[in-house]
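Troubleshooting entry. The earlier prediction with tetrahydrodeoxyuridine gave an output that would not parse, so I re-checked the input for stray whitespace and re-submitted. Clean input:
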Amino acid sequence: MVSQEQRTALIEAAVAVRERAYAPYSNYQVGAALLMADGSIVTGVNVENSSYGLTICAERTAVGKAIAAGYRRILAVAVATDNAGSPCGACRQVLTEFAGDVPVYLVDGAGNGRDTTLYTLLPDHFGPEQLT
Ligand code: THU
């Protein structure tokens, strides 16, 4: 369960870290925040590249940071954009590796938006259980 305090903190972290996005080509800044099993928050931003296809999304930056820090299970996700946009398909798939049907908070720069869940965003997904 994610408490209201954790939800608020996660959204605030995504909104705050979004300021650090490196998005000079699209000008679409994205901040992501992951709530990990021990209550820690791990953040990420999109990092664009002059070779456009090498851009990495904020959600996948956050996942990489979390795994490198020794975390595994994701309890909730917040994504902050200009317009409370939804995560791309690649990020949905990468998040499902480390999360169940967790809450996903999609917010704008003021922290307003909508709540959904990861399996709502990516139903019938491919997962590690299909490799056994
Ligand atoms: N972007 C993300 O960071 N996350 C998503 O889920 C969708 C797209 C970034 C990639 C690129 O830097 C910018 O948004 C425009 O596509």
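This one parsed fine. The first helix runs from residue 4 to 17.
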